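User: Show me sequence and structure for the first protein, then do the same for the second.

Assistant: Starting with the first protein.
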Amino acid sequence: MLLPLLAFTFGSLIVAAAAIALMPSRAVAIDRRLEELTAGREVETEAKPRRQSLIAFFKRVGEKAPKSPKEMGSLRLRLVQAGYRRDEALTIFFGIRVMAALALFVFLSTSIIARPNLLMALAGLGAGYVLPGMALARMAKRRAHRIRLALADALDLLVVSVEAGLGLDQAMSRVGSELAFAYPELSDELRLVNLELRAGKARGEALRNLADRTGVDDLSSLVTMLIQTDKFGTSVAQSLRVYSETLRTKRRQRAEEAAAKTGVKMVFPLVFCIFPAIWVVTIGPAAIRFVTVLFPIIDAM
C-alpha cells in the first residue's frame, strides 16, 4: 500500500515542478498582456480611419444624389427608428443607395458571371436602389423588437421606482441608467427623454417624441396612458401597475400565437426538404429493383 502512494506523490511532485519551471514570470505575463492590448488598439486605430474615409465617400456621393422631398421625411424617421440620429445619416444613406445601384448595374452589365444583358443590368440597378431601404426597414424592425422585449422589465422597475417615492422623470432616468447593460436601446431612448425634459420641453411632447423615435405600438400606448394620467391627475403608480399586467398578458398571447403558427410554418420545410429525401430512401430501392426486373422482360417480349 505504501509503494503506490509514494509513486503517486513522486509523480505529483514532478508535474508540479515542471509546471512551475514552464510557467512564465509575472513580468513576462504582464508584457505579453500589454502587447495583446496594444495590438488590439493598433487594429482599431487602423480600421477607424478606413471606416471614416468610407463614410466620407458615401457622404460626398449622397450630397450630389437627387433627393425626393416627399421621401426624405419618412426616410429620416426610419433612420431614427433604426438608431441613426446623426444629421448626415440621411445623406450617407442616399450615398449607399446610389453606390449599391451603380455597383449592381456594373456587375451585371459586364461578363463576370454571364453574357452582358441590358435588361438584367437595369433590373440590378432597380434592385440596388431598393435593397438599402429594405435593409434599413429590417434594422428598424429588429430594434423595435428588442425595445418591445425590454419594455416589460422596464415597466417593473418603473413601478418599483415610482412606488418608492420618485417622481416620473427621476424614475425614468433611474430606469434608463439601470437598463444600460441589459437593454441599451431602451436605455438610450429614456436618456434622450430625460435630456429633452432638462432642456425645457414639456413632458407630453418628450414622451410623444419617444413613441415616434421607437415605432413600438406598446410604447405608444404607454405614452398615451402617461399623458392622460398626467392630465387627469390620477395615480401614476397604479396606472403603471395595471399597464404592466396588461403588457404581460399581451406578451403571453404573442407567445401563444407564435407557437400556434409553428405547425403551419413547418409545412414548407417538410414538403420541400424532408419528404423528398424520405421518398428517395423508401421508394428508391424498390424503383431500382422494378426497373432492373421489368426492362429485361420488356426487351424479351
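Switching to the second protein now.
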Amino acid sequence: MGANMARRLNECGYQVTAVLDVNTAAAAELAAELGCQACTQLADVTAAADVIFTVVTNDASMRGIFFGEGDNLLTGAGGKIFINCATLSPAIHREVYAATQAVGAHSLEACMASSISHAREGKLYLMLAGDAAIYEKVRPMIEQMSVNRRFIGGAGRAAEVKALVNMVMNINTAGLAEGLGLAAALGHDLAMIREVFSQTGANSRVLETDGGDMVAREHDCWFSAEHAAKDSGIAAGIASEVGLNLPLNSATLAQYTKMVELGLGGLDKSGIAELTFKGRHG
C-alpha cells in the first residue's frame, strides 16, 4: 500500500524525498524508481520530508516507529505532519497524536478502506481524524490519493470507524463462506447460488469480491486472513472497553484466528471458506 501511495503522489507532481521499509531491498528498489533516498534510519525520513506517511502492520509496529529507543520518527519532528494510514487501535492513534503535539508536530489519521490497486490509481476511500485545520492543509494531497473521503473528528475517531468497517466486512465474509459451504454440501450449483444471493437479502459487497474466489479456491492475498484476525480483534477490544458483547464478531475472530493457527494466515480473507467447505482444511 505504501509503495503504491508513493507512486501515485509522485505521478501527481509531489516530490517524494525518502522511503523506508523493514524490507530494505524493496525500499531501495522503490527509491531507485522514484529517484529519492532509501533511508535506513527513521529520523532521516523525518528530516527529509515535510509530510510523512506511515503504513505499518500493528500497534507494536506503530509504537516502534514513533517511540523506539535511539531512533524514531519524532526526532526533530517540529512542524512536520504525519499521516498514519494503517488499521490500528484508536488508543495508539491517540497516543501518537499526543506525542506529536508535545514536540510541535501534527498527526492525522487516514484509515484506508481499499485495496492495493486503489492506492496505485488514487482511488482510496479514506476515513480521516485529527485536527480539522491540518486536514485542510493536506487536503489537496489527500484528494489526489482518494476517490472519496470522510473527515470524522478528533484523534482516534477514524480508527474506531475503520474497526467497525472491517468488523462488519469480516462477519459478512465468514457468513458468505458458511452459506456457500452449506450449499456445496447440499449439491447445489454454486454459480446459481451466487446469482440467487445477488438478487436477495443475501447480497453483499463481499459476494462480489470474494464469492467466486471461495468457490474456485483462489485466495491470492489482497487483504490477508492474518490482518482480518487483527482487525476483528481490535473491534473486540473496543467493544470490551464500552461493555458490549458482540457474539458474531467473536465467532468471526475465532475463525480467522484458526486460519492463522493452521498456517493459512497469509491467504486472502476469502480463504475462510477453507474452514467451511467439506473436504478442505477445516
